[in-house]
Amino acid sequence: MSKIKFGTDGWRAIIAEEYTVNNVARVAVATAKWVKEKYENPKIVIGYDCRFAGLMFAETAAKIFVKEGIEVIFSTGFVSTPMVSLGVVKEKASLGVVITASHNPPSYNGFKLKGDFGGPLLPENVAEVEAMTPDAIDFDLSSLSLDSNLFVKKDLETLYVEHAQVNFDFEAIKN
């Protein structure tokens, strides 16, 4: 396996070249290890955008987190990064994971990390996760399941819209 290099608040790569289910699993293993070292009862909010196979990659990460005993709040549909960030804050989660390549071309996908404060995970923490990324996974991915009380689906889009409606004067914005 090749070394996975992180950039700004996470990892991005070309789908089916470097961005594969196995490599997402490797990054998820490192993320699980990191969050368990930093938090007593970790909770991770996961969202994904509408890029190719976003749901599959998000579920791959969620399966590993559940396997590691981490509570997962999983978006009911594709969402934007700010929706995951708000979900992290509202759910009092330890971390957010967004399966997105943001502004990169459509052939890319990514694994962005959001801190417990909702913003990008601090660079030194991102570096720690990167350093923990194993060269390979040592378990059968196909044996993992989301059938667990640790896995909860949440409508992060509605959470975000309701938050915006309470905190912004839409009538003033329209005018």
Summed up, what is this model?
With 175 residues, the chain is α/β, with parallel strands linked by helices. It is built from six helices and six strands, in the order E-H-E-H-E-H-E-E-H-E-H-H.
| Net shape | globular
In DSSP terms (H or I, runs of 4 or more residues), the helix count works out at 6
Pattern of helices and strands: EHEHEHEEHEHH
| Strand segment tally | 6
CATH topology name: Alpha-D-Glucose-1,6-Bisphosphate, Chain A, domain 3
- Overall structural class, as computed from helix and strand content, comes to alpha/beta
Intertermini distance: 55 Å
Helical proportion?
25-40%
| Mean pLDDT, all residues | 96
Characterize the largest beta sheet: strand count, sense, and whether it forms a barrel.
6 strands, mixed
Number of domains: 1
In order across it, which strands form the biggest sheet? 1-5-4-2-3-6
List low-pLDDT spans: none
Determine the strand fraction and express it as a percent band.
15-25%
CATH-wise, what's the superfamily?
Alpha-D-Glucose-1,6-Bisphosphate, subunit A, domain 3
Nearest-angstrom radius of gyration? 16 Å
Q: CATH top level?
A: Alpha Beta
The CATH architecture comes to 3-Layer(aba) Sandwich
